[in-house]
Amino acid sequence: METNIIPPQTEGKQFDFQVNLTLPTREEALDTFKRAYKRLLNPPVWHKLGGSLGGDFKLVGIAGNELDRLAKMGDLFQVDLPGPGPGVGGGYDWVRVDAVDDSANENGEEELFAMRISPTVNPGSKDPAVAHFFKGSASSTFVIQRKGNEVCASYHGRNEMPNNATGNKVDNIRNTIVAASAAMGLSEIQWKSLVKAFLEPEIGG
Predict the structure, then answer these.
(1) How many other β-carbons are positioned within 10 Å of the β-carbon of residue 96?
(2) Cα 67–43–80 angle (5° rounding)?
(3) Do residues 1 and 111 lie in contact, with contact meaning Cβ atoms separated by under 8 Å?
(4) Interval 107-138: pLDDT, tens
(5) Which of 40, 98, 160, 166 has the smallest C-beta neighbourhood within 10 Å, fewest atoms?
(6) In angstroms, rounded to a whole number, what is the distance separating the alpha carbons of residues 56 and 45?
(7) Which residues pair with 158 in a beta bridge?
(8) 53-79 core/surface letters (b: 16 or more CB in 10 A; e: else)
(9) Residue 136 and residue 198: Cα distance in Å, rounded?
(10) Where are the extended beta strands (E) located within the chain?
């Protein structure tokens, strides 16, 4: 079973990572799959799950209001990275949930849940510029799959290019530096840690 929401790679950097876990029973695999995709849809816990993940994530509606539920299509993530954020983003990077593929089916032998996020504008600003260190064409797609007793979590980064032509010199410099850090593999370490944590047992037993 595959998803069709991972964009083609056309420019910039591409990164793919996958981790597989085989469970002793079908029931444990079902529980692991469900727990994994719910963690995926709960960005406020990503910092705790990822450990070395440098950013704090909040789930925000299109009006800029913080949400206390699992993410849905069209929701925004407010990303607070260490160091100064972009001025256009109000000090934060912003991404939007722009695609979801929900093929969850606990009665079948295969099921899949995938979510794609992409850089977007600051909902609290009238400035139409993308508020993120990557250009708007970049994307991050997370996929949780189960086949029988095996559960797989994967990450797929596409078209990662620095957002350094915003019209704001300070933002251009900041975005270039942060994107360069990502290009050196720092973001890869963070995403690997998070994706692995999606499949870990329930926190606290």
Answers:
(1) 21
(2) 90
(3) yes
(4) 999 999 999 999 999 999 999 999 999 999 99
(5) 98
(6) 9
(7) 139
(8) bbbbbebbeeeeeeeeeebeeebbbbb
(9) 26
(10) 13-22, 56-60, 76-80, 93-103, 110-119, 139-147, 150-160
Angle at CA of residue 63, ends 65 and 141, nearest 5°: 85
CB atoms within 10 A of CB 86: 26
Residue with tokens 């079908």: 26
Place of tokens 């933002």: 171
Please tell me which residue, 97 or 204, carries the higher pLDDT value.
97
pLDDT tens string 151-194: 999 999 999 999 999 989 999 999 999 999 887 767 888 899 99
Residue with tokens 């069709």: 4
Q: What is the DSSP string of 61-104?
A: -TTS-B--S---TT-EEEEE-SSPPPGGGTTSEEEEEEEEEEE-
Q: Does residue 186 sit in helix, strand or coil?
A: helix
Residue 169: count of CB within 10 angstroms of its CB: 9
